[in-house]
Structure prediction request, 159 residues.
Amino acid sequence: MEKDIAITKNEVIEVGEKKLVGFRVVCEDMTGYGQEIPKASMTLNRRKGEIKQLVEPNKLIGAFKPMETSEEDEGYWVCYEVHDFEDIPKGMVRLTVPAQKYAVLHFKGHASEIFQAYPHLHQWIEENRYKRTPEKWTLEIYSNWKENEGHVDLCDPID
Prediction:
């Protein structure tokens, strides 16, 4: 039986362009991401002092395209938002996510349960007659995160 997950609310928001700096994680199969993303996020957290022009140092942002449109889009980006790109630290990458409208699910719980929240978000999108745009960037905005548990806003792009 599936465990109940903590969803506080759903909403639709407009998000402006985001400039992100961090690490790109690319794995051969989906199981690798469950191990590699937490490693990358811990490394990024330790090195965030190297990133210039941080917007909110307590908000880690994950970005990915559910339907990859090119090889350059493949993978998962673990990043912090910056006001502008300046002296990108060695080994890190930059990513610009264009302004977009998102359906957002506010989730509270353990990192391993996040994937279980997406079907709830997709159902809400359908019930409210929005159209998912999986070729655009999905964002996962983490805040108040401690020991793999906390709050995350799952932002699925819609038209």
